[in-house]
Amino acid sequence: FYTGLLRGPEVPRMLLTLDRRNVETLRIIGPGEKSVLLEKAKKNGEWGLPEFGGFPANSQAVAQLIDRLTNAELGMQVSKQADSFDRMKVADNNFERKVEIGKAAEMKTIFFGSAPALRQAHARLSGEKIVYAVKFAPGDIDLKASDWIKKDLLVVDENKIQAITVGNIRIQRTEDVDGQEGSKPAWKLFVNNKPAESQDSEKVDEFVKEIADMQIDSIGSNADIGNVSKKNTFVISVELKEGEKIEYTFAKLNGEEDYLMTTNSRPESFRLPPLASQKLFELSRPNSLIKKAD
């Protein structure tokens, strides 16, 4: 019977009834017991990896995942039968991703399973028997700690660098050499404590930028630490304006093209992105920084 009254659109039902601002813990578990734990620090609100000594996490990436989870809407009910959980991969012990989210007093657990359609997944909240289709791709949730670390942790403000020393070369800010601030080139190259006669300023600039913008790819494992060459190493020393000195020590990994890096500013060892350390090694040689004769 039509009454003439218009009904407004239905309010979407959310997968999680959780205020994202209250989320303090996030654990992501995948097949084969692969997992990563992320926790928010009470002091500064930044995210870290407690299983790696509280190593800083990419807080922006964590916030994006929390936004995705707390903004996911419930779609169609797909099943209410417990015997379908395994088939849809949303069972307690058979899932694509298990996400535990919230804080100590209010934790929620979601099981994400197989895909009923493109960019969708079956989803079930722990303790419930209803399986929903949700617009969510659980395969996008990374399971390796290296995917969540703050990869720009070692980035240095290039404007604060005064000098760089590696082997028999030294690169010094020009104004510290001739007193003319803002003169070009920005850097002066010395080899064996003598000014280089024909420095390649573009290559010198590239080398400085590579050091200042150094990204880490992952935290070195115990296996990495035990697999370094003690002979094949090089050290880059960076002097900053405040008098601070940062040292980066690179040791060649046996059987690999890459190096393992340690620094006096952190207790961990690191792998850089593929071939990044090799590029630093190549640029640190005098022949790379001096113009070749025509």
Explain what this protein looks like in three dimensions:
The structure is a single chain. This protein is an alpha+beta fold. It has 6 helices and 20 strands. A hairpin with a 5-residue loop joins strand 3 (47-49) and strand 4 (55-56). The model has no long low-confidence stretch (mean pLDDT 90). The strands form 3 sheets. A 9-stranded antiparallel β-sheet has the order 4-3-2-1-8-9-10-11-5, covered by helices on one side. A 9-stranded antiparallel β-sheet has the order 15-14-13-12-17-18-19-20-16. The protein has helices at residues 59-70, 174-178, 201-212, 222-225, 276-283, 286-289; strands at residues 25-29, 35-40, 47-49, 55-56, 74-79, 90-91, 94-95, 97-103, 106-112, 121-125, 131-134, 161-166, 169-173, 187-191, 194-195, 218-219, 228-240, 245-253, 259-263, 269-271. The protein starts with 24 loop residues before the first strand and ends in a 5-residue tail after the last helix. The longest helix is centred in the N-terminal third of the chain and has 12 residues, at 59-70. 15% of the residues lie in helices and 34% in strands. The radius of gyration is 26 Å and the shape is elongated.
Order of helices and strands: EEEEHEEEEEEEEEHEEHEHEEEEHH
Shape: elongated
**Widest sheet, order of strands:** 4-3-2-1-8-9-10-11-5
Number of strands: 20
Q: What's the assembly state of these chains?
A: single chain
In the predicted model, the low-confidence regions spanning at least 5 consecutive residues are none
End-to-end distance: 92 Å
Provide the gyration radius in Å: 26 Å
The portion of residues assigned to helices is: 10-25%
The count of helical stretches stands at 6
Q: Strand pairing plus helix content: what structural class?
A: alpha+beta
Largest sheet: 9 strands, antiparallel
Mean pLDDT: 90
**Strand residue percentage:** 25-35%
